[in-house]
Specification:
Organism: candidate division WWE3 bacterium CG_4_10_14_0_2_um_filter_42_8
Order of helices and strands: HH
InterPro entries: ATPase_put (IPR032820)
Largest sheet: none
Number of helices: 2
Distance between the termini: 26 Å
Pfam families: ATPase_gene1
Helix content: over 70%
Protein name: F0F1 ATP synthase subunit
Number of strands: 0
Shape: elongated
Radius of gyration: 18 Å
Strand content: under 5%
Keywords: Membrane, Transmembrane, Transmembrane helix
Length: 72
């Protein structure tokens, strides 16, 4: 009986961890960029930056939870 290669599982774990990191960070960066841009154009500093950064955080966490449920 052959054993499964542990390296394959290690690569999958690394791939999942990196993917989760990007899934959490990218929406936050997008929210930050949109918030800073709108705050600059509308002169409402820092209200829209906080709103869009928080929205990006919530969306990132929701996407991360969805991805974890899908993979595990």
């Amino acid at each position: 009986m052959k054993k499964k290669h542990p390296k394959v599982n290690s690569f999958r774990a690394i791939d999942t961890a990196l993917s989760l990191g990007f899934t959490l960070v990218i929406p936050q960066l997008g929210g930050l960029a949109i918030g800073l841009f709108l705050d600059h154009k509308l002169q409402t500093k820092p209200i829209l930056t906080i709103v869009f950064l928080t929205t990006g955080l919530v969306l990132g966490i929701a996407a991360m939870i969805r991805q974890v449920k899908q993979n595990f």
